[in-house]
Specification:
This protein is mostly helical. The chain contains five helices and no strands.
């Protein structure tokens, strides 16, 4: 025979919902939790660093003193009229024309005419 207490406990289990608690468990190594000792020391030293104040005399020996360059000398302008006459009296040379006293060489024609396709086809047959 089935005991009545057993029947009652099994009936209560069916009626009462069962709550299961799930917990997330992360497996982290201890070194991550503790942090990096060297990095912490480095960051602390960087934060504690105070640069020395700048003085106006700090650049001496590193930068040259500025001195303006000499003004350029103007070109010799005494012969301008003579140079202009010489330029006007020059003979103009044009491409394709022979200079005076030289015989002009005949230009070669680099253009090649192609034969007609019809003539070429007729010769082949």
């Amino acid at each position: 025979m089935i005991r009545p207490s057993l029947v009652r406990s099994s009936a209560l289990r069916m009626v009462r919902p069962q709550f299961i608690q799930h917990k997330r468990a992360f497996s982290t190594p201890n070194s991550v939790l503790q942090g990096d000792l060297v990095q912490d020391l480095y960051l602390r030293e960087i934060r504690a660093y105070k640069p020395p104040p700048l003085k106006p005399s700090d650049s001496e020996g590193h930068v040259q003193k500025f001195s303006a360059p000499k003004a350029p000398q103007s070109p010799d302008e005494g012969d301008i009229a003579q140079d202009l006459k010489a330029y006007e009296n020059q003979q103009v040379e044009l491409e394709g024309q022979a200079a005076s006293g030289e015989s002009g060489a005949a230009e070669e024609s680099w253009f090649e005419e192609e034969e007609d396709d019809e003539e070429h086809a007729a010769a082949a047959h």
